[in-house]
TrEMBL record:
Species lineage: Eukaryota, Fungi, Dikarya, Ascomycota, Pezizomycotina
Domain of life: Eukaryota
Family, as annotated: Belongs to the peptidase M20A family.
Protein name: Peptidase M20 domain-containing protein 2
Native species: Penicilliopsis zonata CBS 506.65
Pfam family membership, one: Peptidase_M20
Start and end residues of each Peptidase M20 dimerisation domain: 197-287
Length: 422
């Protein structure tokens, strides 16, 4: 195992001094590396890359970690733009998930450059804590490509990347929303499970005036399917969301449409509910195909994204830690905050205890996530500083898991209880 020194070692005089010294090392490491962390954030932001094509981001982060004297495995787990860096020995394993893919046309309108920078900072700070303390424990930085529709973390789960992980953490920037106004973000929250597919209706072409009865109208099929799903919405849960668009309605108005294409996004509060809703949507489409004499082919766009099963102990620890920085995070363990977004971090939370905190960054009024305005906000120095405070909170939370067996036990017990509720 390669070694490195990120900050000066401080000899503890007592257990209380020991804890203070290590926590000071964590925050001091983030501060000391601020220039390099700012640079990597800008490198990722200014070179936006789509899912599974994040080559520059991958190479730049790998180079940064290697420059600190730490071993890195590039192109990890069979994914060209994934990587894994690790430090430590035995004990608990804490993983920080590092996202860096962008959105089509609008670049980093989801702020993944900030997500990556927070994870990198938290990893390097935790490495420093392990070096200073000499404790057992392992900390890992996992490069997780293709969150935006590619399900990169799902492929990493299948490849075994989370098989030995005791806690997985990441934090996501968000604009201030009415439900979270007055706080600095949300620690204990969920998100919607997401299913996405593309449906193709195949009919039979014919002249629309001369012999329309010889055709089978795929446009009728896709229109009927759209209407049937619209009627279905009246009988769905308030937390169910169905989004449809018609990508291709036909070739010409004087030709009975031979082929039409629809894409669909189905969201529900839990993975199980999303599967049930998906089945009902499929029945609407099958009925439309049958009624119009067309054939239907359904193609999955990406693996199902699960809902987020936030770990109570992890969320409480993070909230308490951020409070020391005078940052208030929403963490009501009796009433989880509902997040109307989707993420493949939800699948990770089904595999191991997880934290997916959301934190507020400064944006002009009316700026929404997944917009050019939010991409601009993800580049500002002010929001970089906010991200570094969150990184310190994640690192300190990770350190508590690594250094306190009782905390780690509570976290695992919470996870096991949650399994029974799914």
């Amino acid at each position: 195992m390669a070694t490195c020194t990120l900050v000066a070692t401080v000899e503890p005089a007592s257990e209380r001094t020991y804890t203070t010294a290590v926590e000071g090392t964590i925050t001091g490491t983030v501060d000391a590396l601020d220039k390099e962390l700012r640079e990597i954030s800008l490198q990722i932001h200014d070179n936006p890359e789509l899912c599974f094509a994040e080559y520059k981001a991958h190479d730049n982060v790998v180079a940064l970690i290697r420059s600190r004297g730490l071993p890195v495995t590039p192109h990890a787990y069979g994914l060209e733009t994934a990587f894994s860096a690790e430090y430590g020995r035995e004990g608990q394993v804490v993983t920080f998930c590092c996202e860096y893919d962008a959105l089509p046309q609008i670049g980093h309108g989801c702020g993944h450059n900030l997500i990556a920078t927070a994870a990198i900072a938290a990893f390097l700070a935790t490495v420093s804590a392990l070096q200073q303390s000499g404790r057992a424990g392992r900390v890992r930085l996992l490069g997780t490509p293709a969150e935006e529709g590619g399900g990169g973390k799902i492929k990493l789960i299948e490849a075994g990347a989370f098989g030995d992980v005791d806690a997985a953490m990441m934090s996501h920037p968000f604009p201030v929303a009415p439900a979270t106004r007055g706080t600095h973000g949300v620690a204990y929250g969920n998100c919607l499970a997401v299913q996405a597919f593309r449906a193709t209706f195949e009919g039979k072409a014919a002249h629309a005036a001369f012999s329309p009865w010889l055709g089978a109208n795929a446009l009728d099929a896709v229109t009927l399917a759209y209407s049937a799903v619209g009627m279905l919405r009246q009988q769905t849960r308030p937390t169910d969301v169905i989004g449809l668009i018609i990508e291709n309605g036909g070739a010409s108005s004087n030709i009975i449409s031979e082929r039409t294409v629809m894409s669909c996004n189905v969201r529900a509060k839990t993975l199980r509910e999303s599967m049930e809703l998906l089945d009902r949507v499929h029945k609407c489409l099958n009925g439309a195909a049958m009624a119009t004499g067309c054939t239907l082919t359904i193609e999955t766009i990406h693996d199902p994204y699960a809902d987020l099963r936030s770990n109570k102990t992890l969320c409480s620890l993070f909230t308490e830690t951020m409070g020391a920085f005078h940052k208030t995070f929403k963490c009501d363990l009796d009433s989880m905050h509902d997040g109307p977004y989707g993420t493949d971090m939800g699948n990770v939370s089904y595999a191991c205890p997880s934290l997916h905190a959301t934190f507020h960054v400064e944006t002009p009024p009316g700026v929404a996530l997944h917009s050019a305005g939010f991409a601009a906000a993800a580049r500002t120095l002010e929001n970089h500083k906010i991200t570094m405070e969150v990184a310190k909170g994640m690192a300190l939370t990770g350190w508590k898991i690594l250094s306190d067996e009782a905390v780690a036990t509570r976290m695992k017990e919470d996870f096991e209880r949650d399994i029974l509720l799914r």
